[in-house]
Structure formats: structure tokens, C-alpha cells
Amino acid sequence: MRTQSWILLDSKARWGKFRAYLYADVAINFAQHLGVGKGALSGWMSGDVKPSLPRLVQIAYCCGCAVSDVILGNTVMLRRVPLSSPLGALSPKERDGFKKGKESLLAELDAIVESGAASNAKEAADQLRVSEKYLRRLAPTQSAVLVQRGAESRQTQTLSRREFRFDAFNQSFSTLAAQRGFLPSRRAVFADAFERTGIRFRFNEGQDFLRRARALVENQMSRKISPRRAP
Predict the structure, then answer these.
(1) What region holds the HTH cro/C1-type domain (predicted)?
(2) Which range, 17-31, 69-83, 93-107, has the best average confidence (pLDDT)?
């Protein structure tokens, strides 16, 4: 009986997808991001070594996804999350900042907000070593500012991920169009993009990307055939 049978997919295929999606297929960069050596990553990819459950949680944390996504090889919602310390996501956070006193905490919070050292309320609370609930009670105005800042940051990240996914879609679309001499179907682009990057597109997302890709081609063609003005 094999141990750690939670590994469901072929190891090389699974880690290859994650590596290609997050770090353009550069193994050493992916290993450094995960906080492990290249040898450990090679062992996981070959299937000779299986990551422990705590390490699996760390990998999921660093890739901004669920543990199930790592197990199944899903790359739909991956993003790079810096690891502050090995297995830091598993360590309980100490919340003893309240011992400093309110005035000291408020002064530190003002400095954090003004300097932009925290992009959301959670980061500010972690830096102050207090809970988010305590932070809201301590400074509701600054907390509201941080919540708004976090919402704007998440929106920016969402747009950035969407553009990243469209770039992957459009690259497959353009490549297939050049190879075949006609505009490819959505299904053909889906298949090519998944084979190349491991990205799966949702139906509505694919429809929108297909319209955008076709519009880009039409604009390029119209510029090529537009008559030049006589001198």
C-alpha cells in the first residue's frame, strides 16, 4: 500500500503546471518562492519524494490557493504569495501588542497608515500584533481606511490576474490563427492554452476573451488595408 496516497495526479505534470504558471517554467525561481531547495522540488516532480502535509499547506499558501488545488493540479486561481518564514503560515500568531498601551499602538498605527507599510487591515493588525477586531475598536477611522485600501488592492490584483489570463488566451489564439490561416474556435484555444500553461478558462470568461482577441485581430487587419492619403 502506497503512503501519502493523497497525491492524485502525475507529479511531473502537476508541478510543471504550477511552475509554468507562476514562474515561466523556471524551476529555481519556483523553488525559492516555495522556500525549498531545487533538489526538493526535483524530488516532488519526479515522484520520488512526497511533500509532507505541513509542507503541502505551505505550498498552497505560497501559491495563493487551496490544498486541494495543489493535490489536483488546478491552476485556475494561482497567485504568488511571499513566504515570510518557513512554515510561517502554520505558526500561531502572538497577539500581545495590546500590552504596549493604546497611545503607543495608535502612534504606530498612524505611522503604518501614512507610510503605506500595510495594504490592508490584516497586515496592519499583524504588524501591531493585535487582532483585526481589536484594531477596529482601537481606531475605527484608520481601520476603515485600511479596509478600503485592501479592497482597492484586491481589485487591482483581480484585474492583473484577469489580464494575465487573457494574455495566455490571446497567445494561443494568435498562434493558432497564424498556423491555420483562420481564426480559431474558443474550444481550440482552450485546449492549446491548457496544454501550454495548464490554465483552464471558464465559459463566460472564454467568451469575453474570444471577443477581445478577435477585435484585436480585426483592428490590426483594418490598419493594414486602410488606404494611405495621397501626398
Answers:
(1) 30-70
(2) 93-107
Cell of 30: 519556483
Instruction: Compute the average pLDDT of residues 17-33.
Output: 72
| Alpha carbons within 13 A on the beta-carbon side of 127 | 18
Using a pLDDT cut of 90, give the percent of the chain over it.
33
User: Which one-letter DSSP state was computed for residue 116?
Assistant: T
Q: Do residues 71 and 99 touch, judged by C-beta distance below 8 A?
A: no
How many angstroms separate the Cα of 20 from the Cα of each of 17, 28, 32, 212? 5, 12, 14, 24
**Could you give the count of Cα atoms lying within 13 Å of 158 in the half-sphere of its Cβ?**
6
Alpha helices in the chain (DSSP H): 11-23, 27-34, 38-46, 53-62, 67-72, 102-115, 121-128, 132-138, 140-180, 186-197, 203-225
Q: In this predicted structure, which of 77-81, 96-100, 129-133, 191-195 has the lowest mean pLDDT?
A: 77-81
Summarised one tens digit per residue, pLDDT across range 64-76 is: 788 877 777 776 6
Give the dihedral of Cα atoms 177, 182, 183, 186; nearest 10 deg: -90
Say whether 215 sits in a helix, a strand or coil.
Answer: helix
Residue with cell 498612524: 110
